Amino acid sequence: MKEYKTLTRAEVAVGDKLPNADIDITTGLVVCGALATRDFEPVHHSKAAAQAVGLPDVFMNILTSQGLMTRFATDWSGPDAVVKSVDLRLGAPNIPGMLMTVSGEVTALDKDSGLVDLAVTGENNIWGMHMQGTVQLTLPKES
Amino acid sequence: MTTDEQKAIESEIYAFIGQEVYPPTPAADDINEAMIRQWAEIMGDNNPAYLDKDWAAKSIRGTTISPPAMMYVWGQEGFQVTKGRALNAMSNLVSVFDKHGYTGVLGTNVKQEYFKEVNPGDNVTIEMIIDNISERKTTGRGTGYFFETLSTFTDQRGEKVGTQRFKVLKFIPQEQPSAVATEDKLDVPTRIASPRGHDNKWWWEACDDGKVLIQRCKSCQTLRHPPRPMCGECQSMEWDSIESTLDGEILSHTEIHHPKIPGYQYPLVCAVIKLAEGTNFVANIIGCSPSEVHIGMKVKGVLEQVDEKTMLPQFYPA
Q1: Contact of B130 with B149, CB cutoff 8 Å
Q2: Positive/negative CA dihedral, B242, B243, B245, B246
Q3: To which H or E segment does residue B95 belong?
């Protein structure tokens, strides 16, 4: 069985940087992400519908952005961490052909409860900030 | 908009506050592994808490869980939305906005809070209300109102799983959206083009040819930059130029954070540089972190192609 490491609250400090994640925004990710989140709004799978609202191509739906933000946080923390909240501000659309770089930093830590605030930003290389927000997790006391 | 018109729309929209969008509605499907697998594969999420039953059985939870970010997914309306959404308080509210010219729509914030983890076999019920509508605001997109829906999620035992607040801006678009070029490839934005006029075109053209020049008065030999027609010392309009070595020292600097302008690489440091020849020059400092840049720092410029149409001197730590 594969081993997974989860960070404990003792191993984390305010100011710690999370490893960046580069995510290729492909038509596949946009359309399939919308499907996997059962978001069938045409702007997420029909280029014509997206162009009718003034964008060049289909664009990522919010639920996929939320999913990617959570994944970024738990990839760092490990699987025993419990996600408590995701507070996300939306910026420029993610469109196929872009590259989104997600970065994050520990901004608060309560050693008693294990509650950690992560400031997370996803920026694409064409239009800039796509998503910015805070993910809260609780980390275990010991692994 | 006159006060009367504002009163008219506000009397209509504020009546929606507190109205139910979805009465408590159980999801058509219980939380299940097939939908989680599809979600996790596409998100690239390998968290074993979602699908690895052997691992999960031995974990602190003892069982697999649903990805928290799927909380809203279970109750989604499905493919029928491609044919239009059902009439409810939210679609009615949107119609009121549209009728008054607030046709623009932009999701701006979504906040999910999770109170308990749920597992395959559980069923999530969603209930949604229109929780609040802001006063009239002027935003970068246009004048409008923010409305916020509050969704509450419970499991089959009636225990609260979480909440979602979703904020949407309905606004009067400043300009009508137009269809954009249909090529598959996106245009990569370039920097703001250099403004080339009668008095400075020669300077930019020299950059294009690989030279950074400094204008020199033919009468009194005083150097000047940026280019201009008359010498500030002797008022002569005769001039020639010398080529700069691009050796310099930083007099002043700043880091540009916001707004991020398409086509520029960030971090973006701008500095006023005193060139060895004596004139001042504004340029970007690259090749070191912004925190290393300081007044008095020696720098060396290199003429570089920064995008497909722009040659620009860029300065590095010397």
Answers
A1: yes
A2: positive
A3: helix B89-99
Chain B positions touching A2 (Cβ under 8 A) are 48, 52, 55
Please give the structure tokens belonging to residue B21.
């969008």
Give the CATH H-level superfamily of domain B246-318: EutN/Ccml (2.40.50.220)
CB contact under 8 A, A67 and B108: no
CB contact under 8 A, B180 and A56: yes
Q: Which residue of B has its CA nearest to A96?
A: B186
Of B39, B61, B188, the CB nearest to A126: B188
Least confident of B123-132, B170-179, B243-252: B170-179
Q: Could you say which of 1.10.1740.110, 3.10.129.10, 3.10.150.10, 3.40.190.10 is the CATH number of the domain covering B3-31+66-171?
A: 3.10.129.10
Distance CA B203, CA A13 (A): 52
Q: Are B246 and B275 spatial neighbours (Cβ–Cβ below 8 Å)?
A: yes
pLDDT in tens, B289-304: 999 999 999 999 999 9
In a domain, A3, yes or no: no
Count of domains for chain A = 1
- Average pLDDT, whole number, for chain B? 91
Q: Do the Cβ atoms of B160 and B114 come closer than 8 Å?
A: no
| Domain containing residue A36 | 9-138
Q: Of the candidates A129, A100, A122, A88, which has an alpha carbon nearest to the alpha carbon of residue A25?
A: A100
Q: Which residue of A lies nearest to B108 if distances are taken between CA atoms? A: A90
Instruction: From residue B131, give the alpha-carbon distance in Å to each of B15, B118, B258.
Output: 11, 25, 32
Q: What pLDDT score does B84 carry?
A: 82
Q: How much of chain B, in percent, has pLDDT values that exceed 70?
A: 95
Q: What is the pLDDT of residues A78-92, one digit of tens each?
A: 999 999 999 999 999
Task: Please report, for the domain that includes residue A41, its CATH number.
Answer: 3.10.129.10
pLDDT of residue B1: 58
